[in-house]
């Protein structure tokens, strides 16, 4: 995939997920979530070359300083990823994120152990994770699911589900709750799941 196509997809995701988005030029200049993902895409490529792992970590930390968003260069992130507001987002080294995923501010995709193995979550396609949510450990959040604001999720979430609460309880989505996720350009308010 070309760099220009990737940038266009990321800008379209920002436009589609944020009703306050006014133009691609303005979004490219002011959206910290876009800056963080673009820097991550570069750092992740560098991470694939062992000699560049140190510089990749430096780039990730400099991006954290600028944006308030910490994404380890080892994390794998799919297409059209969007972080709304962004401040306080943390994505760990072994996290895997699918396509068309949206995170709000304060989300942690973290680990629960010091093992040098898979210790961070796998997030499926078309998942929305609400503000302040903590998704912890080597668990899977299934495709087309949503995690409510401030939820703490430590167990797998099946596809087409909603996880909310502390600790999170999981329930299937109704058709009405699923409709906003059919079109990835539709704004999704995670509060509607609580």
TrEMBL record:
What reaction is this protein's catalytic activity? L-serine + acetyl-CoA = O-acetyl-L-serine + CoA
Which NCBIfam families does this UniProt record tie to the protein?
cysE (TIGR01172), EPS_EpsC (NF041874)
Pfam families per UniProt: Hexapep
Which is an annotated GO molecular function term of this record? serine O-acetyltransferase activity
Q: Which family does it belong to?
A: Belongs to the transferase hexapeptide repeat family.
Q: What is this protein called?
A: Serine acetyltransferase
EC numbers for this chain: 2.3.1.30
Q: Which PANTHER family match?
A: SERINE ACETYLTRANSFERASE
Protein's pathway: Amino-acid biosynthesis; L-cysteine biosynthesis; L-cysteine from L-serine: step 1/2
Originating species: Rhodococcus zopfii
Give the record's keywords alphabetically: Acyltransferase, Amino-acid biosynthesis, Cysteine biosynthesis, Repeat, Transferase
């Amino acid at each position: 995939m070309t760099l220009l196509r990737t940038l266009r997809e990321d800008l379209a995701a920002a436009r589609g997920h944020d009703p306050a988005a006014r133009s691609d030029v303005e979004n490219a200049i002011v959206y910290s979530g876009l800056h963080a993902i673009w820097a991550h895409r570069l750092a992740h490529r560098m991470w694939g070359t062992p000699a560049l792992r140190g510089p990749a970590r430096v780039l990730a930390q400099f991006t954290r300083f600028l944006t308030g968003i910490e994404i380890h260069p080892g994390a794998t992130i799919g297409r059209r990823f969007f972080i709304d507001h962004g401040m306080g987002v943390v994505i760990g080294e072994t996290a895997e994120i699918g396509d068309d995923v949206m995170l709000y501010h304060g989300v942690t995709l973290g680990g629960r152990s010091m093992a040098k193995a898979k210790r961070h979550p796998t997030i499926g396609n078309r998942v929305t994770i609400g503000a302040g949510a903590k998704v912890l450990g080597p668990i899977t959040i299934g495709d087309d699911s949503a995690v409510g604001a401030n939820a703490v999720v430590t167990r797998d979430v099946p596809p087409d589900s909603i996880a909310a609460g502390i600790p999170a309880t999981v329930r299937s989505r109704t058709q009405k709750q699923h409709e906003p996720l059919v079109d990835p350009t539709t704004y999704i308010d995670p509060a509607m799941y609580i």
